[in-house]
C-alpha cells in the first residue's frame, strides 16, 4: 500500500516545481521513485533522513531557510480524520513540518486505510516542542487541558530528547477530545510551547491507499 501511495504522489509532481518532503517510509519510497525517473525539481525537507536519502540518490535539494514558497509538500502521519486533521507523534520535527505545510500551495498527507478515521482516536500522544525555560509552565498548562505530560526520552541518549532547534520534546496523552478545534486553539495559545504535533486544518489533501485502490481526498 505504501508503494501505491508513493507512486500516486509522484505522479502529481511536474518539472520546475519546488517540492517539500517530510519523513517516514512512504516518503522514502517517493525519493526512490523520483530517482528512477528524474524531474527538474528542487526538494526541501525538515527530515534529516530524507535529506540524506536525497543526497544519496543525487536529487537536487535546498535548505529550507533558502526557500519562501513550495508548490507541493508531501508527508506522512499517524492518524488522519475525515476532515484531514492529523496527529503526528514519532519524528519530533513537527514544528518544521508545519512550516513546510504553511509554505506549500498544497500540503498532502500520505496514509494507508488503517490510519484513516472518522475522528482522531488519539491512540498516540501529542508531541510538544517546548522552550527549556518554559517546561514547568507548559506542563502545568497542558495538564489543565486534561493532558498527561511526560518528557520524551530515547534509548540513544540519557535525559530528555532535544529537538533540532535545541528545545525540549514532551509528550501529552489525551483522551479523545470532544472539540478538536478548541484543543488545538488552546495549545496554540500556551506561551513557551513552540508547536505541537496536532495538525488541525493544515493539510489540504490526502492520498489514502487501501489494498485495492488509491484515493485523493480534498479537505472540505
UniProtKB/TrEMBL annotation:
GO MF annotation: an example: ribose-5-phosphate isomerase activity
Coiled coil: none
Record's keyword terms, sorted: Isomerase
Pfam families, A to Z: Rib_5-P_isom_A (PF06026)
EC number: 5.3.1.6
Source domain of life: Bacteria
A single cellular component GO annotation: cytosol
GO BP term, pick one: D-ribose metabolic process
NCBIfam families xrefs: rpiA
Name of protein: Ribose 5-phosphate isomerase A
Species of provenance: Streptococcus penaeicida
Amino acid at each position: 500500500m505504501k508503494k501505491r501511495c508513493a507512486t500516486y504522489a509522484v505522479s502529481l509532481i511536474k518539472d520546475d516545481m519546488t517540492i517539500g518532503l517530510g519523513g517516514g517510509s512512504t516518503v522514502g519510497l517517493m525519493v526512490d521513485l523520483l530517482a528512477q525517473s528524474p524531474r527538474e525539481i528542487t526538494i526541501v525537507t525538515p527530515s534529516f533522513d530524507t535529506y540524506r536519502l536525497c543526497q544519496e540518490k543525487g536529487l537536487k535539494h535546498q535548505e529550507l531557510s533558502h526557500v519562501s514558497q513550495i508548490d507541493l509538500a508531501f508527508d506522512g502521519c499517524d492518524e488522519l480524520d475525515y476532515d484531514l486533521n492529523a496527529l503526528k507523534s514519532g519524528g519530533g520535527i513537527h514544528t518544521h513540518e508545519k512550516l513546510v505545510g504553511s509554505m506549500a500551495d498544497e500540503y498532502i498527507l500520505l496514509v494507508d486505510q488503517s490510519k484513516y478515521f472518522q475522528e482522531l482516536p488519539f491512540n498516540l500522544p501529542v508531541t510538544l516542542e517546548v522552550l527549556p525555560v518554559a517546561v514547568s509552565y507548559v506542563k502545568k498548562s497542558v495538564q489543565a487541558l486534561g493532558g498527561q505530560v511526560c518528557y520524551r526520552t530515547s534509548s540513544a541518549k540519557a535525559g530528555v530528547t532535544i529537538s533540532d532547534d535545541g528545545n525540549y520534546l514532551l509528550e501529552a496523552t489525551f483522551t479523545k477530545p470532544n472539540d478538536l478545534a478548541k484543543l488545538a486553539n488552546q495549545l496554540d495559545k500556551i506561551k513557551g510551547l513552540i508547536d505541537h504535533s496536532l495538525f488541525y486544518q493544515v493539510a489540504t489533501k490526502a492520498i489514502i491507499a487501501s489494498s485495492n485502490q488509491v484515493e485523493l481526498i480534498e479537505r472540505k
